[in-house]
Queue: 4 jobs
Job 1
Amino acid sequence: MMLIPCPWCGPRDESEFHYGGQAGVAYPADPGALSDEEWARYLFFRDNPKGPFRERWSHSAGCRRWFSLVRDTVTNEVLA
């Protein structure tokens, strides 16, 4: 079991959350200028580090708000 600290509701079980992927992925500045390969890279390619990783989470069974946190992908410890 992993506890995730919701900034509004406090620590809750991971079953109350949905994973939203890597945080900080910026929308392309000029999306019309992207090739299919560049679009695919934007939509589907994400970092997969071993260690601290900044992620987006939604408290879907609680306040339904989105937030970012830093989780160690090896230990599942929430670092920030």
Job 2
Amino acid sequence: MKRFLKQSWLDFKGQRAAFSLEEFALMETMYPFVTMVFYCLVAGYAFRTTNLSRWVVGNAFLLCTNTCVFSLGSCFMGERYYGRIRSIITAPISKLEVILEKGFFPCMICIITTFVGFGAGSIVFHVNWSGVNIGLFLVILLIGMASAAGFGLFLATLGLISNQMHLILNLVANLLVIFCGANFPISQLPAAGQLISKLLPLTRSIEASQLLLEGKIAFEQVLSLLLGELGVGAVYVILAFCVVKSAERVAIRKGTLELF
């Protein structure tokens, strides 16, 4: 465990080595927070309402996008750039462990960023938290961020088989904004859009948090949504592991790491 944490910290630190502490804090909080304020204001004018609680909750969850999609999603691309990908592919070590190491600290950062976003958004848009089960909300937040980190790890592995990661990451970030229920009710999406929303992380966490805030949720419904969210995250971690193993086999067979 000590080696796992040490390696995870070194990997996380290496990814952010170009930033000072102030730059890192601003990048992880202010940029996504301003984005959240933008979408909440648009929702306020579009739906002609001053009760923006559901949009604060939804967009606070999306604060993790910067870390889970762009930072975590580009990590294997960074490994290729810095020349470490050869060691990762050929070394006789567990690739699942390598993947989990890369996701541990980003998951922690996602939880902190989203928690700060909830606090700031609640103050700015006067969200009423009285009567909300804070313990249950923290559980939903933890599971949602774990699922998002799993999704980010899957995106990261696509960097092994594609050189179009900037296109993929920007596309996925916008899919999350549109389809995970943060800004548009899933029930109003077309059938294909509702299917996409079920395949994305955060959809069930956002729904559970919105229902919890509105006081309309039952224990069985929470359990169902959280198990679904955990299942989605687990599937993406397994897919990430499968992509790495496939890339490993192809690289050994062809004698090259350039798989695209």
Job 3
Amino acid sequence: MRITVDMNVCESHGQCVFAAPEVFSFDDEDYLHYDAEPSDELRDKVTAAAASCPVRAITIAG
């Protein structure tokens, strides 16, 4: 599984951080960081994170 977040679209709503904190996080300046290739064991959480993004900035491949 590979994740891409379009940082030109992301508005830092943080829904992905709540849905999959193992994969998504904010730094001290509210800039999103994420694991681009998380374990497949986290697929359900990553899928929920992508679905919860209000601006649909998260894409999952593989």
Job 4
Amino acid sequence: MDRRHPSRMTLRQRLYLVEVLAGLRLTGVRFFANMWRHTLRAAGFKGAAGAVTIQYPDERRPYSPRLRSLHRLVRREDGSPRCVACMMCETICPARCIYIVATEHPNPEIEKVPARFDIDLGRCVFCGYCVEACPEDAIRMDTGILEFASYSRLGMVYTMEMLLAHEPARPDGTPASPVPIPADRLPGAPVPSAAA
């Protein structure tokens, strides 16, 4: 760089030849070093670690236990939702993606139960406020399900039955519920049975 005029480049810098060769040298060194390590590992030398490449989706990294994945509603022992339709999650949701309609519970000790509990995952920002605000611990984000999609906006609306069908993730973080839920499913369509 010309010191008198810092914005001007020298002839060598304008040609970029030295920088291109330096970049090629660095790339070549990394390439052959990784290839050598992979060759050693393929030959049976377990101490040689090659470049870290995860073959997703066949191979997955372990998930953090604090990962927020797809929502699920927790059931009571009698199978009914633990949710008491207090509307705390619906109120605190910054994306306004939760819709609850409350009704009376047949058990007089339980004041209310949701007649309808929908989450629009197309709008959800996975902030976890709904989980934090729930006084009954009725909603959780521990299914381990990260791959869900739909071909329509309505397909991203998960109903109460679908949320109740989800199971918590296994100890290794892999989902216990069927994954993925078909992308072409329609709202209200039956939920696939749990995978073995």
